Amino acid sequence: MSSAAAAGAGAGEETVRASHILIKHEGSRRKSSWKDPEGRVISATTRADAAARLGGLRDQILAGGASFADIAAQHSDCSSARRGGDLGTFGRRQMQKPFEDATYALKVGEISDIIDTESGVHIILRTA
């Protein structure tokens, strides 16, 4: 492989593109969202309840019951919900470490297991 081809082969890992669904809970660093501006529901949700809800949504997507984007638009506590959960392209050290590590570990088209960050619990779909 030429040095130009080798450089190009590694370039794909410099940035990734992903969508996610975030469910916030009582342990989240910011207890409000576009769906819950005063944080009443979020503050009353345990991490276990948030993870169980997110697991059910993940199962629904994997079973083909709904698209990732549709579920994100309806259920995600992140403002990216209006874009079907799309976070756009990002590189290393731009997201919280557990989120970054999980995204880079996925193949394009794969959906993560439940990932915990300071923001809440997420599932991630790597799109590029």
TrEMBL record:
Its EC number is 5.2.1.8. Keywords: Isomerase, Rotamase. GO terms for cellular component: cytosol; nucleus. PROSITE patterns: PPIC_PPIASE_2 (PS50198). It comes from the Eukaryota. It is an enzyme of class 5 (isomerase). The keyword Isomerase applies. It catalyses: [protein]-peptidylproline (omega=180) = [protein]-peptidylproline (omega=0). One of its GO terms (molecular function) is peptidyl-prolyl cis-trans isomerase activity. Residues 13-128 form the PpiC domain. Residues 18-40 are annotated as: Disordered. Prolyl cis/trans isomerase with specificity for phospho-Ser-Pro bonds. Belongs to the PpiC/parvulin rotamase family. This is Peptidyl-prolyl cis-trans isomerase.
